[in-house]
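Write out a record, fold above all:
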Amino acid sequence: MQKINLILILLISLSSSAQKISDIFFSEFVECYYSNKETEPICVYEKPNGKIITELSPLTESHCWYKFAISDSKNGWLKIENLIVAPGCRENKLNENIKLYKDKWILANKMKINISDLDVKPENGVKFYKNANSKSDLVHRAGKFIETKLIEINGLWAKVSFLVDENRIIGWLERKDQCAYPWTSCPYNPN
């Protein structure tokens, strides 16, 4: 009987630990990441233009990225919903409490969002809009992988910038086309 109880406790604890990590993948927030190629720390602020409460050191492991869920933006600032270090650094201390910096702020200038790693004709690819709605004019369509810089959010829309043939494109990206996982490709849904 003790063995069964011990096995049951072990299974429950493993399940809750796995749940904590999977909770970071929120479809109800814009998600972005901080490239592991960056060399400057990420400053976390109490509020926009406020006091720095901590600095997150650049990650040196090759398969580890800071990944943020963002709940709001204001003038180049992003409000943190949660933060995780993934996928290769699940033991990172930040993963013990992914909401540690909830409602704190970071600068948007180095945060990234990718689009799916697809290979389609541009006219069938991901749409970037002039405004944060799908009835807005298109500013670009991409049929290949693009790494974009996050500028701001509006609900689940992400305003991003990227270069195409040395021309800066700025457009709004729907949530379904946002991929904040530099370690894998996100599924592409052309509808």
About this structure: The two ends are 54 Å apart (CA to CA). The chain is about 10% helix and 40% strand.
